[in-house]
Amino acid sequence: MPVVVVESPAKAKTIEKYLGGDYRVLASFGHVRDLPPKDGSVDPDADFAMKWEVAADSRKHIKAIKDALKDDQTLILATDPDREGEAISWHLLEALSPALKKGAAVNRVTFNAITKTAVTEAMARPRQIDQPLVDAYLARRALDYLVGFNLSPVLWRKLPGAKSAGRVQSVCLRLIVDREMEIEAFKAREYWSVHARLATPGGAEYDAQLVSLAGSKLDRFDLATAEKAAMAVSAVASRELRVTSVAAKPATRNPWPPFMTSTLQQEASRKMGMGAKACMSAAQRLYEAGLITYMRTDGIDMAPEAVHAARDAIKAKFGDKYVPSSPRMYKNKAKNAQEAHECIRPTDMMLSPDKLKVTADDQRRLYDLIWKRTIASQMEAARMERTTVEIASPDNQVGLRATGQVILFDGFLRVYDQGRDDDDGEDSARLPAIQQGEAAKLVGKAFEAEFAKAREKDDPVPAAPAGQRAAPGLLLNDTAAVAARQHFTQPPPRYTEATLVKRMEELGIGRPSTYASIVTTIQDRDYVRKDKNRLIPEDKGRLVTIFLTKYFPRYVSYDFTADLENELDEISAGDLLWREVLGRFWKDFSKALEGTSELRITEVLDAIDEALAPHLYPPRADGGDPRECPLCGKGRLNLKTARSGGAFIGCSNYPECRYTRPISTPDGEEAVGDRILGEDNGEPISLKTGRFGPYVQRGEASEDNPKPARASIPKGWNPATLDLDRAVQLLSLPRPVGNHPEDGELIEAGIGRFGPYVKHGSKYANLPEVDEVFTIGMNRAVEVLAAKQTRGRAAAAAPLRELGNHPDGGAIQVMNGRYGPYVKWEKVNATLPRDVTPEDLTVEQALELIAAKAGKSPAKKKAAPKAKAVAKKPAAKKAPARKATRKAAEG
């Protein structure tokens, strides 16, 4: 029977179900060949010849396919319908060619969805491998190899601690570093806004904001100080106000287009906190199960039959009024969009998320997102009414505005609304019925609750003139009817994975199949860390970016990288020759490499030190030299590299002065270096920074005392504010609490690798707060230790079912575990298959699961004792017979 090859066993299983017994479907388990990770795998001097090797794990899969081809020489390559899928098919054909006889039938089929209809239609329309798509893959793979294997060694030699560089990953890293430097260079500007709580003659209340003062329109920074804000508050509070106009305008909101790869990753990040890699992994499983269309695409159009199916689903679920008169058509606005495939959508529009039979939570949630976005994209627009109310004083010296909107028909919003990375300022407040010409009365005590909350803050309080009150960031008139709020302009936000992918897409960097791997790679290399879903560059990432920007500016240029991506797209369209593109790239890139051959590490550090100077040495409050060493006052600060990799700021007066500090510190903390905190019992107590962070030390290392007492600064303590008393307390740990009242054994309190604790003999119990180590008394210590002991004696979980005894003795039980129900017999634990429930499990099934887990069949296990007893003595006598047999075989 014909042999069909796909990438994954899950995909193979689904397709085999559709094709029936007339085909044999096997999995290649992804790529079967790759470039060996060593120099020379791509040879520019031999017209970019590429040496491929079959991966060790892939040999058995290739052999299985070759064995299947012995019975039928019809090979159908059904890998994914993109550039990467075409490359896998090409690799498979190259690896299988020795097993194919002359005249063997080899075809390529593609389908955008793994459904019976799509697969059947694809099998009826086979084609040959698309060579231009393969050429584009070869060009991309060669480019990435040439950059990685030639640029990374330069980094290792010239920048200690750097790991590697990549053609697209380094550009992505630059985006994050550039954004961080924007944030650090940002200078906040103060401004104030003035608000009033007003009421209609009928008593209905609403809020309005001051928009004009002294007859002139207010711009954002016109009220730049508390003094000006206070004057504006007085101006509003001292005047009668009247509604001058009420304008209600109808408005519509159209739905968002269906998902493509980048927008799916962005929404999964916003709505579910799901990273790009996790998102694509879940989408891959849904695709292989035949639930969604192909998930690597930059297309947003939908097949006509899918559009009609979506409209039918909307009509059935929500009614005729939610179906627009004509189908909605979408076109990608991105300049480099290929749109080779349609959008990411469900294969069955009637399969709503509540009917989905998927147990994995991430897949279920992602399907819910895809289904709602797809259905919403074909729904009627939302209709609303936006109202703007203008209020002014009779002398026109004060003007306020109130805005709001009312949704008249929810339309697509009934199903789905896209998340936002940042507030877009749209005012959705509801307004009461307001008539032109009516009085707008100030409402007293309107801002009292806000004022009380503001007073809890420790920030500076502005000066309040007579008739007003002040709290941090807030001014009120005495009746609390008018309020002025303080604001500061905000720096651009750090990238999330979602906004980074969006920015890469805007710049034309990367493609749908590469976004997830790019973002993952820079985190795996410790160039970037994720904190509260925001991407923050590590010191190592900064240094690599500055080095590449300084010495290889063209190759981390956004425009150059985007242009190269466009050339790869032209290769895939058959408009460019891939070796010509590589030749032009290598000619310039090799010259850039040669230009760094004579560079010394000190030159590189000096160049990076100069480039990062605004970040490393910010202006001092006293106006002094930012590079002057704060410890010795004589040396100058400069960038240094550590033996273990990475970099730090050190004093040029080393070794006389050992001042050091990290090149960056967590938000809100001051950079701290070595300093003397004072003396205790005649010994200096100093604060130092080591490879594991800041610590305090008693005395100095010497021949007599090579390892002076040290203590790490606990998490949550700010080294910049650490004083002598706290340091001495740390160095005195563990602290004796007293003798236990029951056995008289000493109880101690200390800080260990797992945090603060109390210790009684060999028993430990954690404390919730670090500061409690220094204050805990006997009663509290005994209570904590007793609670820990009680928790340790928690009763064992009861079994879900008792199945009886095993043939070899011992009870068989069904237990409920962290990862689901499992069968337990003695020390063997065997997880239940997903399609078997604890209630339906039989003893025979349990024995099979136990035997499989233990690595032997139930029958063998039962017979083992007898076989052992019989075979013990004759073993020696049978040895000669085995020897004779061996000789006969050799003869």
UniProtKB/TrEMBL annotation:
Pfam families: Topoisom_bac, Toprim, Toprim_C_rpt, Zn_ribbon_Top1. The keyword Protein transport does not apply. Residues 164-169 are annotated as: Interaction with DNA. Residues 858-891 have a biased composition (Basic residues). It catalyses: ATP-independent breakage of single-stranded DNA, followed by passage and rejoining. Residues 1-114 form the Toprim domain. Residues 130-593 form the Topo IA-type catalytic domain. Residues 698-718, 854-891 are annotated as: Disordered. One of its GO terms (molecular function) is DNA topoisomerase type I (single strand cut, ATP-independent) activity. The keyword Transmembrane does not apply. PROSITE patterns: TOPO_IA_1, TOPO_IA_2, TOPRIM. Transmembrane segments: none annotated. Its EC number is 5.6.2.1. The active site is at 294 (o-(5'-phospho-dna)-tyrosine intermediate). Keywords: DNA-binding, Isomerase, Magnesium, Metal-binding, Topoisomerase, Zinc, Zinc-finger. It comes from the Bacteria. Monomer. Releases the supercoiling and torsional tension of DNA, which is introduced during the DNA replication and transcription, by transiently cleaving and rejoining one strand of the DNA duplex. Introduces a single-strand break via transesterification at a target site in duplex DNA. The scissile phosphodiester is attacked by the catalytic tyrosine of the enzyme, resulting in the formation of a DNA-(5'-phosphotyrosyl)-enzyme intermediate and the expulsion of a 3'-OH DNA strand. The free DNA strand then undergoes passage around the unbroken strand, thus removing DNA supercoils. This is DNA topoisomerase 1. The lineage of its organism: Bacteria, Pseudomonadati, Pseudomonadota, Alphaproteobacteria, Rhodobacterales.
